[in-house]
Amino acid sequence: MNAPDRFLLPDVQGSPDTRQLAIQQVGVKGLRYPLALLDANGATQSTVATLAMTVGLSPEVKGTHMSRFVELLEQPREVTSIGALRQMVVDMLSLLQADSGRIELKFPYFIRKLAPVSGVASLLDVDTTIELWSNHAQQVSMALTVVVPVTSLCPCSKKISDYGAHNQRSHLTLRVQLHEQMAIEELIRIGEEEASCEVFGLLKRPDEKWVTERAYDNPKFVEDLVRDIALRLKADPRIWKWSVASENFESIHNHSAYALIEGTNA
Prior knowledge:
CATH class: Alpha Beta
Order of helices and strands: EEHHEEEHEHEHHEE
Distance between the termini: 66 Å
Mean pLDDT: 91
Largest sheet: 9 strands, antiparallel
Number of strands: 9
Helix content: 10-25%
Radius of gyration: 23 Å
Number of helices: 6
CATH superfamily: Urate Oxidase
Structural class: alpha+beta
């Protein structure tokens, strides 16, 4: 056997398949990889993303080339923008010789916040997902999802109690499909502004007084939360499809209160 022949191994994945069944998504899932993103101020934020990368497979092909997904990630890339992620989908379709494909990145995104009175700074982590998909080599759609931790205070409890009112931490899940780019921080801020109160990583006593009173002065049911955020999303021309959900982790029950509303902008 000649030396070059040692590397001419059979391509089993590329062999024909006779079952004539197309596969809509095939690829890798649960792949963790470092991610450097540009934030709203143009600075770089480093995090770790968990990725799912898939392509459509034609009915006549036995399998996709799994290693090529990792090869794509290993291409030189110092900082990633939304535009670069869109291009990654295009490159994936070319590398895998596919007509459709999808990349999903889930990662903690950190925003630096200042406490409302003392001004002390701290980081708040927000679970974030970017989904990109294409059914055509040059047309890439995108969705952005953030899960924003906030405080909600019950209007009914406030109304019927002689003093105090029960509150709880809530998770607001905002998902938008975009005509134009929107910074992750912008979407997070919409959720925070419509809550009874936002949350912080670090508070001093004057700050704790402020957030307690802020929530008390701004009570909201789970229904109020999703409706108020929905109005904000409906009014944003960059957004064409959206959903918002709220899960309130009740402090007086062993279950959550939940609401979801979704829509499409004209």
